[in-house]
Amino acid sequence: MNMINLTKDNFQREVLESDIPVVVDFWAPWCGHCINLMPIIEEMDEEAAGKYKVCKLNIDEEQPLAIQYGVMTIPTCAKFENGEVTAKTVGALPKAALLSQLGL
């Protein structure tokens, strides 16, 4: 598993400067829906195979980044391409719906 935990220190390098699409899971450890979504996020990470990468961002630890990207509800998943958000989902969606809405 290659999932990266994002911080303000590695966000630029891992997300904004990435050569491949990046899915960022905005979550918090106290969020039940986030915990329910975690196995799907882990599966996506295992299946990414260099087509995209999966990262997690704890909104409690990195609140300014969550605010910067307009995260009002968690879990929120955002797909970044070339440093820009190109798709976003809110809520604990089934895997097929999540992949479809993120264009993966």
TrEMBL record:
It comes from the Bacteria. This is Thioredoxin. Keywords: Disulfide bond, Electron transport, Redox-active center, Transport. Pfam families: Thioredoxin (PF00085). The keyword Chaperone does not apply. The keyword Glycoprotein does not apply. GO terms for molecular function: protein-disulfide reductase activity. Residues 2-104 form the Thioredoxin domain. GO terms for cellular component: cytoplasm. The record marks D25 as: Deprotonates C-terminal active site Cys. Belongs to the thioredoxin family. Disulfide bonds join C31-C34. Signal peptide: none annotated. The active site is at C31 (nucleophile), C34 (nucleophile). The record marks G32, H33 as: Contributes to redox potential value.
